[in-house]
Sequence to fold (458 residues):
Amino acid sequence: MSVDQDLEKLLDNLPFFIQENLTNHRNKDKLVEIVMDLGRRPEARFANGSEYLSQKMVSWQDIDYITKRISHFSDDNRAGIERTLHRISCIRNRQALINGLTCRVGRAIFGTISIVRDLLQSGQSILILGKPGVGKTTIIREIGRVLSDEMGKRVIIVDTSNEIAGNSDIPHSGIGRARRMQVAKTEFQHQIMIEAVENHMPEIIIIDEIGTELEALAARTIAEKGVQLVGTTHGNCLENLIKNPSLADLIGGIQYVTLSDDEAKRRGTQKSILERKAYPAFQIVIEINEQNSWTIHENVKNSIDLILRDNYSVSQIRQFSTTDKTSLKYKKFQTNSNSVPLFNSQSYSKPIHISNSTNWTTLSQQNYVKYGNLKTKKLLIYTYSLSNNLIKEATRKLGLTFLVTKEIKQASLIIGLKKHLKQNLKLKKLAKQRNIPIYIVNRASVYQLIKLFQSLNY
Fold:
């Protein structure tokens, strides 16, 4: 990874007694923000802690010195410095006078999204969840650059607070060739989102901090027009969106459904249950747990349905280190028990191709192989257009025993790639005659095969 932070341009706008303490500070590269409150000592917050910068108290003159050297504050009390990504936010008293400043360091970090590059290539809409300060804006800035420069897409960024592309008419180089539309007032963000689609023919729209019902509705409208979305919103996990009425529309919306007595008895649930109303506007959700550990939901529709049914789900965790080594882990969670892991996760490192879709279809509905029996009996698998090594890797991670057969007549089940199996009518006819279930996957990946074997638990 490489970092472009323009830190000196921020320090030049600070009072001298703060500037001199930070210029030669040993942790200057880890600086996150500088806090200045009237009548208090100025404080620097680093990635690994915070410390006071001076014994001198911040005065009205110090705050006035900074505010006169930066751009005007917008309606959301944010301002910036020309040609940089730094953000200055203010706190006002009852007379609307500024009595506190938070100077946030903006950094363009190149290489942060290498672990989810396959998801960008999938063409599906991606929503990024995370707490404030975890780096969501930095991530989508890099996503804009990669999509526009390296993948040649037509990208428009709706930059509400000028945090993505900087506070000037010329956008920061960190977004590459992507175009930027500024928003005059925060409450107009949803209108600019629709205007971007109608006027500028983008293939991809990037939005930071989707936070209102109107913005969620605009995101759904854009998705229905066939435009790929990349957005961020505040939240720790996918379940937060379900509990947030304003943002639930991003994942399809939630509604109460009343079941008949027989249906409720068959499901073993109450008569009134929660269900997803529609198809999600975002097909992929990335939870930023930590800066180097992300949880991926590659099939949001399936994940939401499992959460609403208090069922078990498998989450994919991608981690990377300073050596650019990436590892993948799979964990099984029970959604109604605060996501407590039920078994130890397995991991492996690059190079692994992660599938960009986890959907599969069952062509034959008879003679399902029960997951509960998979560990006690040997499977005879007939593979079609799939590497035996992929099957071996997937079953090994689940602790299954299997044998590969070249004779369809001996097979317990058939697994193959969708695009090849659909064309083989002879194979489907033979499988139907012998009552052999066929399972198809969209991509040849270990992760998708693991998900397929897990789905056999009927």
In short: The longest strand covers residues 312-320.
